[in-house]
Amino acid sequence: MEALHKQHEPSGDETYDELDADVMGEYKRHEECLKRSLAALQGQYSKDMVEHNAENMRIMSNNMGLIREITKQRDSNRLLKLAVQAEQARVTNRANRPNQTTVADQTARANELQNHVDALTARLEAAGVHQGGLLGDGGEFGDTRAPMGAEPLLSS
Predict the structure, then answer these.
(1) How far is CA 117 from CA 110, 113, 114, 120, in A?
(2) Domain boundary residue among 56, 82, 97?
(3) What string of DSSP letters covers 74-142?
(4) Which residues in the chain come in under a pLDDT of 70?
(5) What is the spatial distance between Cα 38 and Cα 41, in angstroms, rounded to a whole number?
(6) What are phi and psi of 131, to 5 degrees?
(7) Are residues 93 and 134 in the same domain?
(8) Which of 7, 12, 84, 129 registers the highest number of CB atoms within 10 A of its CB?
(9) Could you tell me how many helices (H) and strands (E) the chain has, helices first?
């Protein structure tokens, strides 16, 4: 212990006041260096914080724009889906039920043809030609027998 005490004890040349002045000077120099370092770090921190906040605002703004675009696209998709479903329903309904004008046209044409057949039948009956069945009894053209006193229309 004594050896350590002697080693660190000031020699007779130096006084405690001189040692304290050297230590105090070093302490002050070190304190100033730390204060400058702290000020530089605080300045860098403030600058980084401003940049970080600006970057966050830019990202948030971009995200909001993307959300608006996605919302518009979803609305557009919904409208298109409804239009496609309506078109599919229209096509399905049209395919499943006949067109009323087509049915009416076909009914009118059938009535017109029936009237024409009735008119021809009336003319044949007026001429004295009797029709059997669809093909008649007399072959391909129905009854080919001539009325009484008339010549046969077709020779058998």
Answers:
(1) 10, 6, 5, 5
(2) 97
(3) HHHHHHHHHHHHHHHHHHHHHHHS--HHHHHHHHHHHHHHHHHHHHHHHHHHHHTPPP-SSS-SSSTTS
(4) 5, 8-19, 95, 98-100, 130-156
(5) 5
(6) -100, 135
(7) no
(8) 129
(9) 3, 0
